[in-house]
Write a structure and sequence with these properties.
By secondary structure, the protein is of the alpha/beta class. The protein has one domain (2-269): Vaccinia Virus protein VP39 (Rossmann fold). Helices cover 39% and strands 15% of the residues. The chain is built from eleven helices and eight strands. Strands 1, 2, 3, 4, 5, 6, 7 and 8 form an eight-stranded mixed sheet that branches. The longest helix is centred in the N-terminal third of the chain and has 21 residues, at 48-68. The chain is globular and about 50 Å long. The N and C termini lie far apart (53 Å).
Length: 271
């Protein structure tokens, strides 16, 4: 029975974004409530699995750029999700073994897997914090963060498919600014965010209803709303774009339509 393999402290009656994302990526670390929530979202956004895959590919390309071209050796990945192929430390340390990564998520089941699977090569380091993006001060003050990263040197802050779970009542721009202020000059911010730009008003209403019924608070944002996060930052080319179009590794004819993915992204430098 499913209850037999639920770790202590896990509420398997409430859907969680990390486990739902795991389901969309064909993972096995999810519960019936997560699958039901995922299918609820898919009822109004049938290409959600494609969006999850393309978002993951964007993360991998962005990390590769950070290490190979920007020279970044430190990463703070908030909203890590369940480990799967091509995690941040695996990509970074394959290029620069001394890379150091702190993973942050608020689901205890992610902690169980992360401690077992997110292991560093000897030259680098990884750490996992069980913490919530809605309390950025606690993340920044965590002793394991200080032990792993030197916040006086450039860091890549990863907020990949995370901020759209921060609804307006939790002050998303204020939370983002708190994290940004902790980054020294030369740091980078990698962010992707679901958008409703390609939906009709009727589809937006249907999506909002499905999200509400899914049990996971969610906020689609327009390009203009997304752009508000990056005031005062230097946007790397191509600027704000679809995850499909950020430094793609496949020819145009092999890429999915940006409307089917509906995910904005940006890589920005802290001046």
């Amino acid at each position: 029975m499913e209850r037999e393999w639920i770790p202590r402290g896990i509420d398997a009656t409430k859907a969680h974004p990390a486990r739902r994302y795991n389901y969309w990526l064909d993972g096995k670390d999810n519960f019936a409530v997560d699958r039901a929530s995922a299918e609820m979202v898919a009822s109004s956004f049938p290409t959600i699995r494609l969006a999850a895959l393309e978002n993951r590919r964007f993360l991998q390309r962005a990390v590769t750029y950070m290490v190979a071209e920007a020279g970044i050796r430190q990463f703070l990945d908030i909203g890590t999700g369940l480990p799967s192929a091509g995690n941040v430390h695996e990509i970074a340390q394959a290029i620069a073994p001394q890379s150091r990564v702190v993973y942050v998520d608020n689901d205890p089941i992610v902690l169980v897997h992360a401690r077992a699977l997110l292991t560093s090569v000897p030259e680098g380091a990884t750490a996992y914090l069980e913490a919530d993006l809605r309390e950025p001060e606690k993340i920044l003050a965590h002793p394991d963060l200080a032990r792993t990263l030197d916040m006086s040197k450039p860091v890549a802050l990863m907020l990949v498919a995370t901020m759209h779970f921060i609804t307006d009542d939790h002050d998303p721009y204020g939370l983002f600014e708190c994290l940004r202020q902790a980054l020294p000059s030369g740091s980078y911010i990698v962010m992707s965010h679901a958008t409703g730009d390609y939906l009709t008003p009727e589809e937006l209403a249907e999506s909002a209803e499905a999200n509400e019924r899914s049990g996971v608070p969610f906020r689609l944002r327009s390009t203009a709303e997304f752009a508000r996060f990056f005031s005062g930052l230097e946007l790397l080319p191509p600027g704000i774009s679809s995850v499909v179009e950020w430094r793609p590794s496949t020819p145009p004819e092999d890429r999915p339509a940006i409307e089917d993915v509906s995910m904005l992204c940006v890589v920005a430098r802290v001046p």
